[in-house]
């Protein structure tokens, strides 16, 4: 059975208290060990606003029904092409409505570990759910997660349609690549407080292997950072907003129009942090590739067709490589 971060720290530190200015070597970044960086790459990471989109205004087909809808669609398109992520403030509904546990996959004794604990669960389609991994306490956990998953399906469909509409394509062009076989994996993340956060990663720099990822962030504790114009920037906490970011598979399907952004998590020295990430992707057996309408002489094909991208992703990710580079032409 995998140990929690707290157990790993206790083993490394012996009987010393966890709040001492000590971080086990297993968690210290390689660049810090080699003296190449101090703190967050040598300086304070700025807080930068990520575009906030009102999903209820986004048109899901062409043309937009109002100037407001058209303006929101243009903002949505600019956000995904320049950032690769948005913060979503509203749901598509009336105003009155409102696999298993573990840490890093350890492949060697010298691997630098992320400082977090995770619970990953297949949540959709329902016949893929392994309920033996689902917590039974609190008693309402399964019911609430199931309801959240169904509502998120509506959001995911709306985002894919808005992506297509923003490119003047048929609204279902990205959804058709799924052939009706959408998979959703929920990952609950706990990042314990760390006495020396500048030495470690809560989650190492990476881009997601999903099509899109929807994150329900901690309401009070930040830590998520994105790489923007070769500089790391902090993402602000916006109450009642979800963070939606592009994954590698949408970058492939959009032929590079929408980019899968690099991001990371830095733990807090004062508080633990909790988040829920929902990864949406096609069924592993479905082949994906650039949408034909986005390939022409001015924008040649950039990616191969690929099946089971998650397998490719994890193979290269654990080697410290950018997985999407393996499917570039």
TrEMBL record:
<dbReference type="InterPro" id="IPR005123">
    <property type="entry name" value="Oxoglu/Fe-dep_dioxygenase_dom"/>
</dbReference>
<dbReference type="GO" id="GO:0046872">
    <property type="term" value="F:metal ion binding"/>
</dbReference>
<keyword id="KW-0408">Iron</keyword>
<dbReference type="Pfam" id="PF03171">
    <property type="entry name" value="2OG-FeII_Oxy"/>
</dbReference>
<keyword id="KW-0560">Oxidoreductase</keyword>
<keyword id="KW-0479">Metal-binding</keyword>
<dbReference type="InterPro" id="IPR044861">
    <property type="entry name" value="IPNS-like_FE2OG_OXY"/>
</dbReference>
<dbReference type="InterPro" id="IPR050295">
    <property type="entry name" value="Plant_2OG-oxidoreductases"/>
</dbReference>
<protein>
    <recommendedName>
        <fullName>Fe2OG dioxygenase domain-containing protein</fullName>
    </recommendedName>
</protein>
<comment type="similarity">
    <text>Belongs to the iron/ascorbate-dependent oxidoreductase family.</text>
</comment>
<dbReference type="InterPro" id="IPR027443">
    <property type="entry name" value="IPNS-like_sf"/>
</dbReference>
<dbReference type="GO" id="GO:0016491">
    <property type="term" value="F:oxidoreductase activity"/>
</dbReference>
<feature type="domain" description="Fe2OG dioxygenase">
    <location>
        <begin position="182"/>
        <end position="282"/>
    </location>
</feature>
């Amino acid at each position: 059975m995998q140990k929690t971060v707290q157990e790993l720290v206790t083993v490394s530190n012996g009987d010393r208290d966890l709040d001492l200015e000590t971080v086990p070597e297993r968690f210290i970044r390689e660049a810090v060990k080699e003296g190449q960086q101090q703190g967050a790459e040598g300086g304070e990471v700025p807080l930068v606003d990520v575009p906030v989109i009102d999903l209820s205004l986004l048109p899901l087909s062409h043309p937009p029904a109002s100037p407001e809808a058209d303006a929101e669609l243009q903002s949505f398109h600019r956000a995904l092409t320049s950032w690769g992520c948005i913060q979503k403030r509203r749901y598509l509904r009336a105003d009155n409505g409102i696999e298993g546990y573990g840490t890093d996959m350890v492949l060697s004794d010298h691997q630098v570990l992320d400082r977090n604990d995770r619970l990953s669960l297949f949540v959709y389609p329902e016949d893929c759910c392994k309920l033996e991994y689902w917590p039974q306490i609190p008693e309402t956990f399964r019911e609430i997660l199931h309801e959240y998953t169904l509502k998120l399906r509506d959001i995911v469909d709306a985002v894919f349609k808005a992506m297509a509409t923003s490119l003047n394509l048929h609204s279902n062009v990205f959804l058709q690549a799924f052939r009706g076989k959408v998979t959703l994996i929920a990952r609950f993340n706990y990042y314990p407080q760390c006495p020396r956060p500048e030495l470690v990663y809560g989650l190492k720099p990476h881009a997601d292997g999903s099509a899109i990822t929807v994150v329900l962030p901690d309401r009070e504790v930040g830590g998520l950072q994105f790489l923007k114009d070769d500089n790391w920037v902090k993402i602000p906490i916006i109450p009642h907003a979800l963070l939606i970011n592009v994954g590698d598979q949408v970058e492939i399907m959009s032929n590079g129009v929408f980019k899968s952004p690099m991001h990371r998590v830095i733990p807090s020295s004062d508080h633990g942090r909790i988040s829920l990430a929902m990864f949406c992707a096609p069924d592993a057996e479905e082949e994906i590739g650039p949408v034909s309408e986005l390939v022409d002489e001015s924008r040649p094909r950039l990616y191969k067709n690929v099946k089971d991208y998650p397998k490719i992703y994890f193979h290269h990710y654990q080697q410290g490589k950018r997985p999407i580079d393996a499917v570039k032409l």
